[in-house]
Design brief:
Blueprint lengths: L1 H26 L4 E6 L2 H10 L1 H4 L8 H20 L7 E9 L2 E9 L5 E10 L6 H14 L10 H17 L6 E10 L4 E9 L6 E7 L7 H6 L10 H13 L3 E7 L10 E9 L3 E10 L3 E13 L4 E10 L2 E9 L8 E13 L2 E16 L2 E16 L5 E17 L8 E11 L9 E13 L4 E13 L30 E3 L2 E3 L3 E12 L4 E13 L8 E12 L2 E10 L4 E8 L4
Parallel strand pairs: 1-3, 4-6, 7-9
Antiparallel strand pairs: 2-3, 5-6, 8-9, 10-11, 11-12, 12-13, 13-14, 14-15, 15-16, 16-17, 17-18, 18-19, 19-20, 20-23, 21-22, 23-24, 24-25, 25-26, 26-27
Length: 587
């Protein structure tokens, strides 16, 4: 019988008691309102931190808990206001029953803020070069101090000022520096605060030799050539970061970590420890593609990052396009300590464009170095070319040409620039006295300007100028002459279809001028629409350099490899509409 009644009792509890009790609890959740009177500048601070706000809607709240929170509120308000410089607030808090709800009235007058009146910043420890260096370093710390006299004393600003002062020592010469003492003495009666900070610099550190771990395929010289640190020079953290950045950006390593031990008992000639994870040295790649300029493409690439076991970088490619076929190889040597990147290259190519068929072979050498956002290159190239022109006599030419190029990239993002500019200037020369069929001096410039008009709107302005100073274009290879038209020059016209008419073909001329203005509106973070106007031409005489124009609209997509552009353009001269497809910018 006991088991039976227990069973029935549990059943009745479930059906008749449990559900009504749960419904009643849900209907009687304790709630209250808060009426906060405080200046707008301090409202968010109190609403986000006071327990009165944080506990609203909690199932454990009741009238007794609310009374306790009301009693605690004044102290909490004082504590939070003191972090933003108010130490003498007037606070009035009450609670009253209104209809069916409790209401908490909280009136806060912050009062006058506390302001900094005195700063005492001292540094104890061993300085690098004696009293003069010591005093100069201390004066710089004081000059850079961010919480100046007269400023409102806020806790976050105080902590930030201390961190920045300590960081100035940690980053240059003194990586074991620490805060010895810090005090902020507040006088509520005068609304003032006196600050005191003492730093211990510790000993001045100096760099020692490299200690490299993780090399299996590549010689240690790969790391040593990228190292900007000279053994024995003073410790500067930026040098460590520069070395790590160079290693990480090099093609040899997938991971690079640079660190030092900052033990103050061993401060002289501290070893620079480098740990690297190497990339595979050989890679074979295949690709297919399509360009509205040169047609369908198939490609085979081979790369060897350790050619002949010397960390020489061999890159070669066979590219087969409908209008162009290319076999190329490039051998790059490891970067020197001075930052120079040397390379030699060779190329065999056949083009069939606008009625001109060219076959050429080239061998060249180049030295490149980068300083900040500027890249400079010097080169020497020997080029042999044979040219067949539809409806005209074919030609052969040879040129040995030294060259110099200068490129500056000052944009907010290299793949997706929205602000800034890109500029390239290039010069080439040749003389018949030195393995060339024609004397000439060639200059070329290309610029792009990116102007944000709003958060979603952008203006892109591009332009090109080129000139070849020579008696005539005879004997000058087509690489050094100018044609234009196509996906990234004058849209609305076929690739390199604007130039000098010769026979039934279009060939290069000695002068070039193009310009483009494009407006882009980003519909989403990834997709945009564009309208544009392009103009320009190439000619063999300035009098013949008459621009033709193209107009159009396009779609933009921020692909992983750069902006993908799909444009529909109308060529005013040809009176035809042409589709253009390209990725990125021609820089």
């Amino acid at each position: 019988m006991r088991k039976y009644w227990l069973h029935v009792g549990a059943y009745c509890l479930l059906l008749g008691v449990a559900q009504p009790i749960w419904v009643a609890d849900a209907a009687e959740v304790f709630d209250y309102a808060i009426k906060l009177q405080v200046p707008q500048a301090q409202r968010k601070l109190l609403e986000e931190n006071l327990d009165l706000y944080r506990w609203r809607g909690n199932e454990r709240m009741d009238e007794a808990q609310l009374q306790r929170l009301v009693r605690l509120a004044p102290n909490q308000v004082r504590e939070f206001l003191s972090t933003v410089g108010f130490y003498t607030p007037n606070i009035d808090v009450t609670m009253a029953r209104q209809d069916t709800q409790w209401v908490v009235n909280l009136d806060v007058e912050p009062g006058e803020p506390v302001r900094v009146t005195r700063i005492d910043l001292q540094v104890n420890g061993l300085f690098k070069d004696g009293p003069d260096e010591n005093q100069a370093r201390l004066e710089k710390l004081r000059a850079d101090w961010s919480l100046h006299a007269g400023a409102v004393f806020r806790h976050d600003d105080w902590e930030s000022a201390k961190r920045n002062a300590l960081k100035d020592l940690l980053l240059v010469h003194y990586p074991s520096a620490l805060i010895a003492s810090s005090n902020a003495v507040v006088n509520p009666e005068t609304n003032s605060v006196e600050l005191q900070l003492t730093l211990n610099s510790g000993p001045a550190f100096s760099f020692g030799e490299l200690q490299i771990q993780g090399l299996r395929r590549y010689p240690a010289s790969v790391v040593e050539r990228l190292n900007p640190i000279v053994s024995g020079e003073p410790y500067v953290q930026a040098k460590l970061l520069e070395l790590q950045s160079r290693l990480q950006d090099s093609p040899y390593f997938s991971v690079a970590v640079v660190r030092v031990e900052t033990d103050p008992t061993h401060a002289s000639n501290i070893p620079v420890r480098v740990e690297v994870t190497e990339r595979q040295s050989r890679k074979l790649g295949f690709g297919i593609g399509l360009s509205t300029d040169t047609g369908a493409r198939g490609q085979v690439d081979y790369a060897d990052l350790n050619f002949f076991g010397q960390a020489w970088r061999l890159g070669s490619a066979l590219k087969l396009e409908q209008k162009r076929q290319t076999l190329s190889a490039d051998l790059q040597f490891p970067q020197t300590r001075q930052g120079y990147r040397d390379s030699i290259n060779t190329l065999v190519e056949r083009d069939d464009i606008a009625g001109e068929v060219t076959r050429k072979g080239a061998l060249g050498a180049k030295r490149t170095f980068t300083r900040g956002t500027t890249e400079t290159s010097y080169g020497l190239r020997y080029l042999l070319e044979s040219k067949d022109v539809a409806g005209a006599v074919g030609t052969h030419s040879a040129t040995l040409s030294p060259s110099v190029s200068w490129t500056v990239r000052k944009v907010d993002h290299l793949l997706y620039p929205t602000r800034g500019y890109l500029l390239t200037l290039q010069a080439d020369a040749a003389a018949r006295a030195v393995l060339s069929d024609q004397d000439f001096l060639r200059g070329y410039g290309h610029a792009a300007l990116f102007v944000p008009l709003s958060e979603r709107d952008q203006l892109i302005v591009r332009g090109e100028l080129g000139v070849v100073a020579a008696k005539s274009r005879a004997g000058i290879p087509s690489d050094y002459l100018f044609r234009t038209g196509g996906d990234q020059t004058v849209r609305g016209y076929a690739y390199q279809s604007l130039g000098v008419s010769e026979g039934e073909a279009i060939v290069g001329g000695r002068y070039l001028a193009t310009a483009s203005a494009e407006y882009v509106h980003w519909l989403t973070s990834q997709w945009g629409a564009a309208v544009f106007v392009d103009g320009g031409n190439a000619a063999d005489a300035l009098a013949d350099l008459k621009p033709v124009y193209g107009y159009g609209v396009g779609a933009r997509w921020k692909s992983p490899v750069g902006p993908l552009n799909l444009d529909l353009a109308y060529g005013q001269k040809d009176r035809a509409v042409r589709l253009h497809f390209s990725v990125g910018f021609s820089f």
